Amino acid sequence: MGDKFTEGIFMGMIDDAERLIAGDPLGETIQPVSYLLRGKEPQSPSRTESPLEAVYREAASCHACPEYARRTVFTEPVTKMNPLVLFIAPYPEGPMIFSSPSLEKFRAWWKLSLLLEEGEWALTTLIKCPAASFSAGAADGCRAVLRKEMEIMKPRALVLLGHDTASFMLRKNLPMDELRGQRFVINHIPAFVTYTPSDYLSDPSLQRPIWNDLLFIRRSIGTEGRKS
Questions:
Q1: What is the mean pLDDT of residues 141-158?
Q2: What is the pTM of this model?
Q3: Count of domains in the chain?
Q4: Burial class for 37, CB neighbours closer than 10 Å (0-12, 13-18, 19+)
Q5: Which of 129, 138, 140, 205 is deepest in the core (most CB within 10 A)?
Q6: pLDDT, tens digit, for every residue of 8-52?
Q7: Numbers of helices and strands, H then E, in the chain
Q8: At 215, is the secondary structure helix, strand, or coil?
Q9: What letter would DSSP give residue 78?
Q10: Is residue 196 part of a domain?
Q11: DSSP conformation class of 97
């Protein structure tokens, strides 16, 4: 039935019919009967929205900068509570944070080289909408979202992927060679800088510098002695 009112009328008609058949039209003998309508599923209480879901729902409808106009889908991060490492990429490379080649390289090298277990890492972006290039204005608009993510997830270390991410978050407009191999602090969280997977795919000569970065980060976050 469509609603409680219609359902009540229908039930009353059934009761009246039963009384007529039993010769008790006034309902003096036969007591009312309860019925269960087949196919009508009981209403379950709605699931409570998590704090991160609330943040991403708000970000998905953000119109703070022109990037929203080209957004076809909001790219949700790979979230974990209290991860050992939160990787922060500059922006989504499409519907996913990384393109397929970048994602394959990230899983096989960045994550694996730091000897991280599956529950120990998370991945997000500075700019939340897919973008063709980095925009300081868009990053400024998304800063509050990233801050909320960090407050909720509580990562123990940050890995800033790429020059744009590092320069914006550290407020240091320096070459990558001067940002890499150092330990910074953002909101009391240790932060480290290296290249993005797409940087490497564009320039394979970065293999050695990236490997050195990952070794430095591995020693800094305390995973050096783990078995690979």
A1: 94
A2: 0.76
A3: 2
A4: exposed
A5: 129
A6: 555 555 555 555 555 554 545 545 444 344 454 555 556 788 898
A7: 9, 5
A8: helix
A9: B
A10: yes
A11: S
